[in-house]
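Q: C-alpha cells for this one, please.
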Amino acid sequence: MEAGIVGLPNVGKSTLFNALTAAGAHAANYPFATIEPNIGVVPIPDPRLAILRDHIETQKLIPTSLKIVDIAGLVRGASTGEGLGNKFLSHVRETDAIIQVVRCFEEAPGGEEITHVDGTIDPLRDIETIEIELVLADLQTVEGALDKAKRAARSREDEAILRLALLEKLQPVLAEGRPAREVDLGSDPRTPGVLKGLGLITTKKQMFVMNVADDDALGEGAMAKSVRELATERGSQAVPVCARIEEELSELDEADRLEMLADYGMNEPALAKLARATYELLGQQSFYTAGEKEIRAWTVAKGATAPEAAGVIHTDFQRGFIRAEIYSIADMQEYKSEKAIREAGKLRVEGKDYIMQDADVCHFLFNV
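A: Here is the predicted structure, written as C-alpha cells:
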C-alpha cells in the first residue's frame, strides 16, 4: 500500500511526513525503512497485536505497514511544468491513494508567521488549486493518448477499442475541470487494468489531512469544519492533525507522550488515526498469523478469499492451498488460548471460497 502526501508549499506537509516517519522509526519492535529521502514505511497502529500477545507467548510483534511518499509542494501551473511540476506529478501517479494536506491555522506556535503561497489562508481554495492541477495533468495525459488510441483501434482488437472508448469518456469530463473518478466507465472487467495503464491521478481515492493549530488539536475550528463538510459531501474522510504536536510526540518516550496527549485532550496520536483512515480508504483489512516466533498482521483487500490471503504470505501458500483454520480476535479474548478455542468448537475450517473477515487469525494448510 502506498499513499502520496500532496499540498501547497508551507501547509505543514513535510512536518507531517517527518512526524510519521519518526513515529515509525521509534516504535518498539516495528519495522521501519526510509527507501529514499522522500519515502518512508510506517507501521499501522494495531492494538489487536497486543491482545494476541497477552495470550500467546511470542518473540516479536510485526504490524502491517504503509508506504508514504512526500511529494514536494505543488504550485499553480505544476501541470505545465511550474515549480518541480511533472517530476512530482509522476510520483503521485505511482501511489494508490492521495493524502491532501490542507492548512487550517492562521499562525504557527509562538506567533511565527508562515507565509501562504497565495497570501491568505483559505483551505477550500487550496483544495481547489491542487485538484485543478491534478485534473489538468490527467487531461494532458488523456489528450496525448487519444491519437495513438484512435490509430490502434483501427485494428479492431477488443482492448484497443475499449481503451479508446475510455479515453473518449474521460476527456470531456476532465476538460470541465472534474476528476476522472467521477466518470462512469461501465462494468467491463477489463476496464480497471486499462485504466491503471493510463496512470491517471484523479482516479485515485483521496482524503484530507487538516493541519490545525495547537489550540484546535481536535479540529473543531471553522476552517477545519469547512474541510470536514466538503469531505462528507464527497464521501471521503478528513482527519485533523497538528503536525507540530505530532512531530514533538514522536520524539518523546511513552510516559511523556501519554502526559502530553492528556494535556491536549487526545487518547492517542492523531497519526494513528491517520494511518488507520488511510488503510480504510484503500479498502484494506488485517488478518493475523500467531506463533512462538512472531505475531504478525497482514494486509488483504476486503472481499479477498482465503487462498488470496495465503498468497500474501507466500505465493506457494496460494498455489497449494488446502484449507485454513481460523478464529477471531474476539474468540481469543473470550477463550484465552488456541487450545480452549479448539475445544469449544470455535476453530473454523474454511476452504477455497471463504471470504476473509477483518481480525481473522489463520493457520494455512498447503501442499506444493
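A few notes: The CA atoms of residues 41 and 67 lie 4 Å apart. The first strand starts at residue 2 and ends at 6.
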